[in-house]
Write a structure and sequence with these properties.
Keywords: Secreted, Signal. InterPro entries: Beta_helix, PbH1, Pectin_lyas_fold, Pectin_lyase_fold/virulence, Polysaccharide_Lyase_9. This is Right handed beta helix domain-containing protein. GO terms for molecular function: carbon-oxygen lyase activity, acting on polysaccharides. It is elongated, with a radius of gyration of 24 Å. It contains two helices and 42 strands. The N and C termini lie far apart (88 Å). Strands 1-2-5-8-11-14-17-20-23-27-31-35-39 form a 13-stranded parallel beta sheet, with no helix packed on it. It has one domain: Pectate Lyase C-like, CATH 2.160.20. It is mostly beta strands. Helix 2 links the parallel strand 1 and strand 2.
Length: 416
């Protein structure tokens, strides 16, 4: 009998724990922030109220309608109780957070529709974020160290007004903390379009960020770089994004009105990152691995099985872009498909090699346009790089490999 009673008590404890972990909160346009928030009929009015009050392991459901807020997430989950999830109550009628009436800045002094600083175990899902205008702003901004933040199935658009400093960014993640990284970050299945990052980027990670996944996103109609994985900058204490995955993203219509050099996907000083199965087209450039800061090294990159086509200048580029920049070393570029890049007929061709060494380019499929220009390399730039086993398809009926053109050390070489 005693054992039986103990089992009953234990079962009740487990049930209570389960209920605590699965608490649901509700935000509705008909609600009040003085309500309990635990049912649709007692919903809160603002998302900020939920962002101040939700408990670890809970889900915050936001009802249909437009919420004119700039939200700072002041709560977080944990490893024991689980994530706090913010999501739409009706997936076929997603909640909208609009910046049209934005008056409250985040702790960083910028306007952000959702702001997360030094927090962990958060999921932001199934929301539409739009209509924010400022020289320095983001749809979602994640700042500082922490773990397990996931941004999934977000629609972010019309974040505008980006200037020479800051930028109007769809998603930005920054960490200048030397001791603690931002890790296990997931940005998945988001659609980002029609923003004005200007001198910044549409989706940007910079600083001490590791074990990240940027996957299955669609990014288009931006006035600068689509995806940027960066490091080496003084404002993030010279720290760099590293040890992550950028895969299955589709990026198009990325054009900089300043210098027409915006890549769809750009690694600037990152290391140990795999970029695979991405598609970039109709942009200033396709995919670039570089390092803009002098003395900084981008290394151990794996760039494979990407489809880079119909871009204004070149499809694939790697290296520091002049002698006063950093270097790209010991990286692998394999099994990529490059087709009909250099639409502007600028003389860049399909592949551009800048300053770096020890890089390997293998088994790529290359189909140039009528220029038949495969590669350009600046004098003194490509030190001990290896090119082999490419598959070339010269342009034009009856064209042969002797029609292919390579510029190496500023000299033209015709054919193989």
């Amino acid at each position: 009998m005693t054992i039986f009673l103990k089992l009953i008590v234990f079962a009740h404890v487990l049930l209570w724990i389960h209920i605590v972990e699965c608490t649901s909160y509700y935000v509705m346009k008909s609600g009040k922030d003085t309500n309990a928030g635990t049912s649709p009929s007692t919903a809160w009015l603002t998302i900020q109220k939920a962002a101040n009050s939700a408990t670890a392991g809970s889900t915050v459901y936001t009802g249909p309608g437009v919420y004119y807020e700039t939200v700072t997430i002041n709560v977080q989950g944990n490893a024991n109780n689980g994530f706090i999830t913010f999501t739409s109550y009706m997936l076929n009628n997603q909640s909208v957070i609009s910046g049209k009436q934005a008056k409250t800045q985040s702790a960083d002094g910028a306007f952000n529709l959702i702001y997360i600083q030094d927090k962990s175990y958060l999921r932001i899902m199934n929301l539409e974020l739009k209509d924010l205008n400022s020289s320095d702003c983001s749809g979602v901004r994640v700042v500082g160290a922490g773990t397990n933040v996931e941004l999934r199935n977000l629609l972010i658009h019309d974040i505008r007004g980006g200037g020479m400093s800051g930028g109007a960014v769809a998603i930005s993640v920054y960490n200048k903390n030397k001791a603690n990284s931002r890790r296990q970050l997931i940005i998945d299945n988001c659609t980002l379009h029609d923003c004005e990052p200007a001198w910044s980027e549409a989706l940007t990670l910079s600083g001490n960020i590791e074990q990240f996944q940027v996957t299955n996103n669609r990014i288009y109609n931006m006035n600068n770089i689509g995806i940027d994985l960066a490091g080496g900058w003084s404002w993030v204490n010279g720290l760099s994004v590293h040890s992550g995955l950028c895969a299955n993203n589709t990026v198009w219509n990325i054009h900089s009105p300043v210098d027409s050099s915006a890549a769809g996907i750009y690694v600037d000083g990152g290391s140990n990152i795999t970029l695979q199965f991405n598609e970039v087209y109709n942009s200033d450039a396709g995919l670039e691995v570089g390092s803009e800061n002098k003395g900084h090294i981008a290394a151990q990159m794996i760039v494979r099985q990407n489809y880079l086509h119909n871009n204004t200048y070149w499809g694939l580029g790697f290296g520091g872009y002049d002698v006063n920049r950093g270097r790209v070393i010991n990286s692998l570029f394999e099994n990529n498909r490059l087709e009909y890049n250099d639409v502007a007929r600028s003389g860049s061709g399909e592949i551009v090699v800048a300053f770096g060494s020890g890089n390997t380019v293998l088994r790529n499929i290359v189909k140039p346009n009528e220029q038949n220009l495969v590669l350009t390399e600046s004098k003194g730039a490509g030190l001990k790089d290896t090119f082999d086993y490419q598959m070339y398809y010269p342009y034009g009926q009856g064209a042969t490999q002797s029609d292919l053109i390579f510029y190496w050390e500023n000299k033209e070489y015709d054919g193989l």
